[in-house]
Amino acid sequence: MNEVSQSKFLSLVLRHKPEEIGLVLDQNGWASIDELIALANARGTNLNRSQIEFIVENSDKKRFAISADGTKIRANQGHSVEIALGLPPQTPPERLYHGTATRFLGSIRESGLHSAARQHVHLSSDHATAEKVGSRHGKPVVLTVEAGQMARDGHFFYISENGVWLTEAVPAKYLN
Ligand code: HQG
């Protein structure tokens, strides 16, 4: 398995389906690295400690983090499994961006942004990143989110360890 497939495998088991290999995440999303390697190897997925460290350090989006004591790993964001990242609420910049596909616009105008299968709506502080995220779904369009106003109105924002802004949902009135 190459580095990209290994990274996708880590996303699958650390964000969405740990049960697929029998892995258990703690309430903050951490998994034991030794256990992860043993379970992966047991089902024929080649993965070792140095490959994991390479992905954590070099993945383009810094998707994963290793705990301070070096024994555990978790995904920084993107979860569909219910875990608490334990991030403190942060004051967002006045505007944040969300990239989506043009075909979703009608529904988004009606019901705002919801997190679909994930735990949070993902927002970027820059337009270019949002455009890239949107193009994963089709013809991209970038929506501006009035994040400052949302925060003043009592909505919470968090920033993941890899710099993605997260919030539970964005009501349509804050979108441009
Ligand atoms: C859309 C990647 C219809 C939403 C990226 C999005 C990101 C609606 C899709 C991270 C809607 C969900 C997350 C509504 C939202 N009606 N469609 N009311 N509200 N949507 O993949 O933000 O490479 O769950 O616009 O970089 O695209 O995996 O979210 O198009 O940070 O690390 O529903 O995934 O990171 O799609 O991407 P997703 P996303 P990784």
Structure report:
The chain is of the alpha+beta class and 176 residues long. The chain has two domains: 3-75, Arc Repressor Mutant, subunit A, CATH 1.10.10.970; 96-174, ADP-ribosylation fold (Alpha-Beta Barrel). 32% of the residues lie in helices and 16% in strands. The protein contains six helices and eight strands; from the N terminus they run αβααβββαβαβαββ. The protein has helices at residues 3-16, 33-42, 49-58, 105-111, 127-135, 147-152, and strands at residues 31-32, 64-66, 72-75, 96-101, 121-123, 140-145, 158-159, 165-167. The strands form three sheets. The protein has a three-stranded antiparallel β-sheet with strand order 1-3-2. It has a three-stranded antiparallel β-sheet with strand order 5-8-7, with no helix packed on it. Strands 4-6 form a two-stranded antiparallel ribbon. A hairpin with a 5-residue loop joins strand 2 (64-66) and strand 3 (72-75). The structure holds ligand HQG. The site of ligand HQG has 19 residues, from strand 4 and helix 4. Residues 61, 63, 78, 100-101, 104, 107-108, 111, 113-114, 116-118, 122, 133, 136-137, 164 line the site of ligand HQG.
